[in-house]
Amino acid sequence: MLKYPERSNDYEGNQKMARVHNFSAGPAALPTSVLAEIADEMMDYRGCGMSVLEMSHRSSMYQQIIDDAEATLRRLLSIPNNYRVLFLQGGATLQFAGIPMNLMRRGRAGYIVTGNFANKAYKEAAKYGEAVLLASSEDTNFDRIPNMADINARIAAEAASDGLDYVYICQNNTIFGTMYHELPACGDVPLVADVSSCFLSQPLDVERYGLIYAGAQKNAGAAGVTVVIVRDDLIADGPAFAQTPQYMDLKAQAAKGSMLNTPNTFGIYVCGKVFRWVEETGGLAAMAERNWAKANLLYNLLEHSMLFHGTTQADSRSIANVTFRTDDAELDAAFVAGAAEHQIQNVKGHRLVGGMRASVYNAVTMEDVQALATYMKDFEAQHGLSQRSN
Questions:
Q1: Quick one: CA dihedral 235, 110, 77, 39, positive or negative?
Q2: How far apart are CA 207 and CA 204, in angstroms?
Q3: Is the Cβ–Cβ distance between 174 and 197 less than 8 Å?
Q4: pLDDT tens string 271-330
Q5: Distance from CA of residue 361 to its chain's centroid?
Q6: Tens digit of pLDDT for each residue in 131-167?
Q7: Which ranges of 144-264 would DSSP assign to H, the alpha helix?
Q8: How far apart are the C-alpha atoms of 83 and 102, rounded to whole Å?
Q9: 3-state SS, residue 279
């Protein structure tokens, strides 16, 4: 029997807790030091005599919290001054409609469909104008990012003919385990990206985009906050549709500093803690190095396994979501059940793909990934198969 890495149960304050190896795709693992700090401040936030949960969003104390969260994120991503940072609610799903409502001024936008969420965004946009399908990988069950040369040629052709308000991508596909390793060349057409499952996992050049957004529940904090970063000129004239609901008006939200209504105060507070943690652990370049080390440990194992195989093409592999399976659904189910017995949780694949998925987000440690890798080797050995040689 192979030996599993020891799981440390210590966190700040030297309290002992039973912590599992959590590979959830979202809501996902949070840094234990952040959880400990939140716990310490839960009853009395820094001597103010109340919890952040009880604090008015109009108070000077809370204004410091949201201002610090934004300032930290701006440092991490080197966000230029001509971009607004918004902390909204409604998740990515609300932005599927919010983006065309705000940006589809000529009534025509291009969509690259590389997975379930990109497809949902594409279908939602078609309610508000012409959603042009620039490329798709649906024919191979979204196991890849389409050829970039073909994408770029199509963008250029569509932009030169009837024009495009923006080009939309989902940069990392959580369900299918694929990621763009190169961004489309959009010229003067703004690039809009859902970066939910790769947000803060690696450096990101904000100036390549007109708008990016991310649900916080994967890499940036707790569920219930959506971070939107948008270039000023794209929202300066207000939304493209006069009937856009006030909450979805990005110009109005920016003017009110994300406080058009009561925001998710506690969620933003948690985001600020996570942003600080990323900064204090070396920033995005260091985070990318750690994340690729974790992901590649699993990808290398899959390449040499006789039992497991990855479900994505090698040049489209995600930094955050490693998808794999056996060729037997019953064996997949047995693997997931056995994982739970080893305190390895949330590795069941999405129903659209099946098999298994390990989401190795920022707060997932190398120790967690090593425990999963050890279990995979052990499971394979128990089923009478040996690893392929180099």
A1: positive
A2: 9
A3: yes
A4: 999 999 999 999 999 999 999 999 999 999 999 999 999 999 999 999 999 999 999 999
A5: 8
A6: 999 999 999 999 999 999 999 999 999 999 999 999 9
A7: 148-161, 232-235, 250-255
A8: 15
A9: helix
